[in-house]
Structures
1.
Amino acid sequence: MSGGRTLDGEVVVSGAKNAALPMLAASILSAEPLRLGNLPDLRDVHTMLSLLRILGAVVDGAAPGSASVRLAEPKSFSAPYDLVRTMRASILVLGPLLGRFGRADVSLPGGCAIGARPIDMHVNALRSMGAEVEMRGGYISARSNGLRGARIDLPLPTVTGTENIMMAAVLADGDTVIENAAREPEVRDLADCLNAMGARISGAGESRIRISGVGQLRGAEREILPDRIEAGTYLVAGAMTGGRVALRFRGELALGEVLAALRNAGADVRRGEGFVELDMGGRRPRSVNVATAPWPGFPTDMQAQFTALNAIASGHALVRENVFEQRFMHVAELRRLGADIEPLGREVLIRGVRRLQGAPVMATDLRASASLVLAALVAEGETVIHRVYHMDRGYERIEDKFSGLGAEIRRV
Ligand code: UD1
């Protein structure tokens, strides 16, 4: 990539990875087809489809665009290490497999290298619903003769944990109440999908979710929400280059705190039905302090991108990571490009510099890679980013979209 261009143009936002993955997993819960539209063409989506095929699902019309998934006869109840290690979200098949078939073996997850990321809350919740869960040979092995509803108090509002519990509870006997549930828009989207399949879930999007078990679920057809993290990443690109970026999308784009942070950085942002437009008018962004938190707070998946923005902004900023430990792997790479960033435990202090310089850098996880692309857009000379496969897990056609905005970017 070569930096220095002012971005100007339009981007069509893809369907949300983090809504697509749990909904694909939800297809396990019914013998009838679940048809999903606005499905993004991403490596993680293909990994989930491969996993569903291993379990016995028939997939028609895979990504891009849409897919119909039907699991009539299970062939296996096991999510193997080879798939799970490339995508942590494979854990999402645990709840639905256990809920419908009473058994699931899921390899312990790998995925993004961002801290320890345990799955104890998933396991404890399933145990309190009556499942027997053991760790054996690197696998989580869960069995039940019929789950029963339970009251589950989550110590932290885990996103995939909340989704797993909802999917386990929809076919359980009686009512399940999740306290301190994750409130992310993708959790609500999954609940809407499950309700369209015949589930009885109320309160999704709030801290207390109630699920009343039903006998079985039917097929359904759903459109996946636009990806708020992908959208936010392109808006930050517009802001960093002093440019103008217009986003187009179908459905509701929940940008929340990210829009507020962009306005604090000095961007003019307009929004309406199906579009958001950011105009920086050639200005250099101002530093913005951000501190990540569960929804409705500032998303941890946008932290690396705002670290990159602050690296070239005027002034000083503190960026604090409250959701994950060790999610500052991009900092060392941004420093190679000339950023002035001082690590302070769970925070980094960033002193904005006027210019970054191109250099070879290494992507370490999905959002860290995005921050390196953003930095390369404003770096003098050429930046070569290694291990970009991390990016393909979560950004659809990223080179095309950035090229369309006028960036000099190509895959080598
Ligand atoms: C999901 C998102 C990910 C996002 C994250 C936080 C998907 C597929 N991934 O990940 O993009 O960065 O939410 O918004 O939707 N924790 C435990 N024990 C558990 C589970 C979680 O201690 O059993 C901790 C984690 O280490 C972390 C916090 O809870 O500190 C929140 O993590 P969680 O919400 O579970 O993240 P994911 O669902 O894995």
Note: The mean pLDDT is 95.
2.
Amino acid sequence: MMKCDVITLFPEIIRPVLAQSMLKRAGEKGLLDVRVHNLRDFTEDKHRTADDHPYGGGAGMVLKPEPIFRAVDAVRSQGEPVRLILTSPQGRLFTQPLAFEFSRETRRIVFICGRYEGVDERVREGLDLEEVSIGDYVLTGGELPALVMMDAAVRWVPGVLGDPESANEDSFSGALLDYPHYTRPATFRGLNIPDVLTSGNHEAIRDWRRKQALLNTLKKRPDLLNHPGRAEENRKPLKDLGKERGGKLS
Ligand code: ADE
């Protein structure tokens, strides 16, 4: 069971995504519990102001600290321990190991969605939070990143995917990209599926898939093969594959 809170100026970006497909099913099965909080509900002026101009001048608006602290206090006052995440392009990169870690987190994961030009720095200074980025590009806000992180994490919660092996076999779990998949029809616009997949020889199929995953990775993301901590385990299969293919690996 993964428990999350999303603090956002745009709850309507979050809610419809939670109401579809796997995230919806995870919610219905009691494996994902997400509470969405509108940051405006934690403002105190009559205009419900959540942002303001930056001190020192310059373009854009900055999210005010008070509503964010109040929203976090409100979540904390529910009594459960929390893990605070600020979505930000300045954060540590979100990758599969962190997705897995989130799926095993027993505290509520509270996503504070940044917006506009930034968040008042005292949010970082005054709250014990972790800053996480979903990639080296700048989005207009942290709502999509919060959804991306919940989606990537919930796949690892036991019972969310029909087949518990699915999460394991996919790209990146073994730091390799996935092997190619085919479904019916066996011939489509003159394109056939590989014979081995209909051979009934499970060992041969496993072998073929392992090699294809390696080739796929070599072709599309060779950087993954040299990942520290992975380079060693990839060395032998790569060498074998090279020998088998007469030195041709692409
Ligand atoms: N907010 C804006 N850009 C972001 C990114 N790349 N990751 C997380 N939060 C963000």
Note: The mean pLDDT is 94.
